[in-house]
Amino acid sequence: MAIFDCTECGGKVSSEATTCPHCGSPVQAMIKKIAARRQPIRTKTTTRNQGPTKQKHGVLLVLSDVRAWLVLIIIFCFFAWSTNLFGPKSSPRAVAARSPIERQFSAWDGSHIALTKRIKEQLNDPGSYDHGKTVHVEKDGTLNIMVSFRATNGFGALVLQQVIAEASATGDGDDVHILSQK
Q1: Do the Cβ atoms of 120 and 129 come closer than 8 Å?
Q2: Tell me, what DSSP letter sits at residue 37?
Q3: Which of 110, 114, 137, 178 makes an SS bond possible with 173, Cβ 3.0 to 4.6 Å?
Q4: Strand partners, 177
Q5: How many CA atoms lie within 13 Å of 60's alpha carbon, on the beta-carbon side?
Q6: How far apart are CA 55 and CA 60, in angstroms?
Q7: How far apart are CA 16 and CA 160, in angstroms?
Q8: In what helix (H) or strand (E) does residue 180 lie, and over which residues does it extend?
Q9: In the chain, what are the domain boundaries?
Q10: Do 146 and 135 meet the contact criterion of CB atoms below 8 Å apart?
């Protein structure tokens, strides 16, 4: 059983009724009229809407793909720029061209390589060493170095420590002497 609008008065009519309860029009004639009216409209509407709709969705799909690729390219370019992905690399020549003072320090975190090794030898847990900051001053062929770092003490607590040392400014850095440790 289906309920539809009467073609004459617009009232609700059951498909099982013989006439419209509001105006008395025959239901079978209304059903034929509605079926005849809907069939051409459906095929026209379906045919018309499928073509442009597919085309619109195709255009929208292409536009969304272009936007997605554009976003990915922008993200990749930002990553490459921020990490210096395509920048100059440190070659052996570039390392050799560094001054004797620069060669004593790590290019990674700026720590004095030989002093870090000495500090780790003195620690209870060398794996807990976490470099903080290294400052150095060169004066009269001597390199004064101050290193701040974190490491665990004998009780397992993480403490901030500071070491002041000196090394030769012209040497390879192995002649490091620790002056004080706080």
Answers
A1: yes
A2: H
A3: 114
A4: 166
A5: 6
A6: 8
A7: 91
A8: strand 177-181
A9: 3-59, 100-181
A10: yes
Judged by DSSP in three states, 105 sits in strand
Q: Greater confidence, 54 or 137?
A: 137
Give the model confidence (pLDDT) of 19-31 as tens digits: 888 888 888 887 8
Q: In the predicted model, is pLDDT for residue 162 greater than 90? A: yes
Say how far apart CA 46 and CA 24 lie, in whole Å. Answer: 34
CB within 8 A of 39, min separation 6: which ones? Answer: none
Name which of 86, 161, 72 is nearest 116 in CA terms.
Answer: 161
Q: Which among 177, 174, 93, 102 has a CA at the least distance from the CA of 138? A: 102
Full DSSP string of 109-146: T--BHHHHHHHHHHSS-GGG-EEEEEEEEEETTEEEEE
Q: Give the DSSP H/E element, type plus range, for residue 14.
A: strand 12-14
95-154 residue pLDDT tens: 566 677 888 888 888 888 889 999 999 898 999 999 999 999 988 888 899 999 999 988
